């Protein structure tokens, strides 16, 4: 059984934008001198009005605590 709201989100043109932005922030945070910027950007996105990026700061923190995600861009 699927939820109609979740199914409609999967068809939304912005599906995947959150993950792409999170991967970008992880790659930045791994670079010398960019960690502070990536963290501030994640907090700003989390507060963004649409709510699209709500939780991204926590996800970035968790990814970095785990050693980060692969830096290879998705294919």
What features would you describe in this structure?
The protein has 75 residues and is mainly alpha-helical. The chain has helices at residues 4-11, 17-30, 35-46, 56-65. The longest helix has 14 residues, at 17-30. The chain is globular and about 35 Å long. Mean pLDDT is 80; it is low at 5-9 and 69-75.
Give a quick set of tags describing it.
single chain; 75 residues; 4 helices; globular; disordered C terminus
How far apart are the first and last residues' alpha carbons, in Å?
30 Å
Major sheet attributes: none
Approximately what portion of the residues adopt beta-strand conformation?
A: under 5%
Please provide the ordered H/E string of secondary-structure elements. Answer: HHHH
Decide which structural class fits the backbone.
mainly alpha
- Number of helices, counting only DSSP H or I runs of 4 residues or more: 4
How many β strands by DSSP? 0
The percent of residues in helical segments reads 55-70%
* Low-pLDDT sequence parts: 5-9, 69-75
Evaluate the radius of gyration: 14 Å
* General form: globular
For the residues shown, what is the average pLDDT? Answer: 80
Question: What's the layout of helices and strands?
Answer:
Elements: H1 4-11, H2 17-30, H3 35-46, H4 56-65
Give a short summary of the structure.
The protein has 75 residues and is mainly alpha-helical. The chain has 4 helices and no strands. Helix 2 packs antiparallel against helix 3 (35-46).
């Amino acid at each position: 059984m699927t939820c109609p709201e979740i199914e409609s989100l999967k068809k939304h043109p912005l599906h995947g934008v959150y993950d792409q932005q999170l991967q970008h922030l992880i790659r930045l945070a791994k670079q010398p001198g960019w960690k502070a910027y990536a963290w501030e950007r994640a907090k700003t996105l989390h507060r963004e009005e649409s709510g699209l990026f709500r939780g991204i700061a926590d996800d970035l923190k968790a990814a970095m605590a785990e050693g980060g995600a692969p830096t290879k861009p998705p294919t």
